[in-house]
Design goal:
CATH topology: Fumarate Reductase Cytochrome B subunit
Shape: elongated
Number of helices: 8
Bound molecules: protoporphyrin IX containing FE
Strand content: under 5%
Order of helices and strands: EHHHHHHHHE
Structural class: mainly alpha
Largest sheet: 2 strands, antiparallel
Radius of gyration: 20 Å
Number of strands: 2
Distance between the termini: 17 Å
Helix content: 55-70%
Number of domains: 1
Length: 210
């Protein structure tokens, strides 16, 4: 196989192994959490959610200490640059970037923040159920200071346990994340067409043409 960084091969290794494993593990854990959010699969749901939270926290650390293209300093631009990039992307005349584009970088930050809010609101809600213990109760009761709902106030259904307002908040963050994900995928498709390259393949192999 040609060396990815060999000037002769015309390919540069942009996404390191951590970023690629992080990305596809995140996609799998997010989909699992989303589709396992029923009463019967609640334990699996929380573990998929904890996996998402762990991956995102690890990615934030990697964004500070990782290699060049993984670092926040490489892909956090001014919002005005992201807007200019987006405008030009729709006109199919945007500059091509080896790492994340200004709009792509902004989306990465938005996704990470939204995923943190989704997972932490999930823990905050889960911890307001009296029977819950572990990480969720620590986050909910000790860090945020929420009171658990006493079993006497349960309305029978599993779904009605816990603090309803916090549950609504969790659902709102889930929906905001879903909207961002659809915009993210649309952005990947549009940028792939505009720059005539397969960005999904790059997130698998790590390589991009020079
Ligand atoms: C199957 C659907 C998906 C595809 C095809 C896809 C594809 C991609 C591609 C190609 C990139 C690199 C973009 C670039 O070149 O600038 C990327 C980055 C990213 N995607 Fe996705 N994505 C998908 C779903 C998701 C989901 C569901 C999430 C969140 C739960 C997500 C979160 C991210 C994040 C955080 C990055 C930044 C990667 C990094 O720098 O660490 N993606 N995605
Ligand atoms: C990115 C990760 C997550 C996603 C995508 C997600 C998504 C969802 C969805 C779609 C629901 C269903 C809401 C409804 O019934 O209408 C839900 C409910 C819930 N989530 Fe999450 N969630 C995530 C993380 C977490 C975490 C980390 C926890 C706690 C450890 C958690 C705890 C809960 C609980 C307790 C419910 C209520 C389920 C029920 O009443 O049966 N979630 N979540």
């Amino acid at each position: 196989m040609a060396n990815e960084n060999d000037p002769q091969s015309g390919t540069v290794r942009v996404w390191d192994r951590f970023v690629r494993v992080f990305h596809w593990a995140l996609v799998a854990a997010f989909i699992a959490a989303y589709f396992l959010s029923e009463d019967e699969t609640l334990t699996l749901h929380t573990w998929a959610g904890y996996t998402v939270a762990t991956l995102v926290l690890a990615r934030i650390v990697w964004g500070l200490i990782g290699p060049r293209y993984a670092r926040f300093t490489d892909f956090v631009y001014r919002p005005s640059e992201a807007l200019t990039y987006l405008k030009n992307l729709f006109l199919f005349r945007a500059d091509r970037y080896l790492g994340h584009s200004p709009a792509g970088g902004l989306m990465v930050v938005a996704l990470l923040v939204s995923l943190l809010l989704t997972t932490f609101s999930g823990m905050a809600y889960y911890g307001t159920r009296s029977e819950t213990d572990g990480i969720a109760t620590f986050v909910s009761r000790d860090v945020i200071g929420l009171e658990p709902v006493p079993p006497a106030l349960y309305k029978g259904e599993m779904r009605d346990r816990g603090n309803h307002d916090v549950k609504e908040l969790h659902e709102t963050f889930v929906n905001i994340t879903i909207i961002l994900i659809f915009a993210h995928i649309a952005g990947v498709v549009l940028a792939s067409l505009a720059h005539r390259e397969n960005l999904v393949r790059s997130m698998i192999t790590g390589g991009k043409r020079r």
